[in-house]
Amino acid sequence: QVQLVESGGGLVQAGGSLTLSCAASGNIFSINAMGWYRQAPGKQREFVARISRTGITNYAASVKGRFTISRDNAKNTVDLLMNSLKPEDTAVYYCATSRDVFLNPVDSWGRGTQVTVSS
Q1: Can you tell me the distance from the alpha carbon of 95 to that of 86, in angstroms, rounded to the nearest whole number?
Q2: First CA to last CA across the chain, in angstroms?
């Protein structure tokens, strides 16, 4: 069992930046990929970004070039730097881990952190 705790959400104006952080504990040796999903009101949860244990990254088209995912294997943490934020980035952001390099299926979810981007 892996436990995930997110932090760093909040309210920001359009064009601003936020960094989300996620710390993993528990059965960390089972973790391969780490990443982020988000869910906006009335919408399905969607993939945002993932990073493998070796640092290979992948992003959703909607955030590519604006968001950067990074990982510290020694600290078992994953961060998401979000730049040039848009109102449509408003959502609850969830940290996720998987034994699979493609973060599919997700084995563990965090409780989520709210990001609100005002126009």
Answers
A1: 20
A2: 40
> Among residues 27, 45, 25, 26, which one has the least CA distance to residue 36?
45
Beta bridge partners of 11: 116
User: Can you point out the beta strands (E) in 28-90?
Assistant: 33-39, 46-51, 57-59, 67-72, 77-82
Backbone angles phi, psi at 62, to 5 degrees: -70, -20
Predicted confidence (pLDDT) per residue in 14-26, tens digit: 999 999 999 999 9
Identify whether the C-beta of residue 71 lies closer than 8 Å to the C-beta of residue 51. Answer: yes
Under 8 Å between Cβ of 90 and 64 = no
